[in-house]
Amino acid sequence: MPVVLVEVGGVARSGHLYGDRTGIEYEYPDGRYEAWIQPGERFVYQTPRIGYIGYGIVGDVRPSPAAGRRICRVDDVRYFEKPVPLKNPAGSYYEADTTYWRDKVYWGQGVRPLSDERFDQILSVGSVPANLTSNQAEQVSPVYTDAETSRRVERISVNAAIAAMCERFKVHVKEMPRNNPGFDLLVGQAKSPLRYVEVKGTQSAAPVFFMSDGEREFSRRYQDRYTLVVVSGIDVTAGSHTTLTVRDGALDGDDVEMKVSQWRGRVV
């Protein structure tokens, strides 16, 4: 279940000052939101009087130096070019979901639950800079000579994965918006998904891929419904591929080799 994180940039929220660092980590009271703030869960940032400003994936959670609080790392953070309003085009609040709120949304609450369906609606309205719309392009494009090749590799791999998942599950497979964090394809319905599918494509003959910390945490969070599809040996001229590798479950274990290839730094 995705969550809404109220982000106010160091200003007190609900009468308390929290040690948030936007795009890096989020501090919240201990004993209240542990069931919602879980590593690998998707989140959307909401700023009061502005709207939804971005989204990402919850990373590691640890105790805060401040008593009675916890801190979660935030991964794969993207910011909308323009804030998404709290209300949808029809004039209803995205968060006004009777699954979680009986009569009204408690806007003063710093962390709020959000359904997958409402999360997807917010992302479908928001837009991010063109060079950040695809995790796959961002992670893999350094090995390609141009962005067009990267886009073709992505398109071929996604088409191949959709065909494979349709054949396997015999149900509808939805391609998610290119800016969706955690996975690329949804098998089944948003309210009761059968599978979250992450798609990786490569021109290499071997099933190699790049993956962010956030994507890996998502695979752990939903390991019972997670599938990785790696489409390899892609020929962008012929529009073909040689191998499609499918792996279910969290990206841990002896049958998958994961190595750190990049570090995120910050001068303090």
From TrEMBL:
Residues 154-234 form the Protein NO VEIN C-terminal domain. This is Protein NO VEIN C-terminal domain-containing protein. It comes from Nocardioides gansuensis.
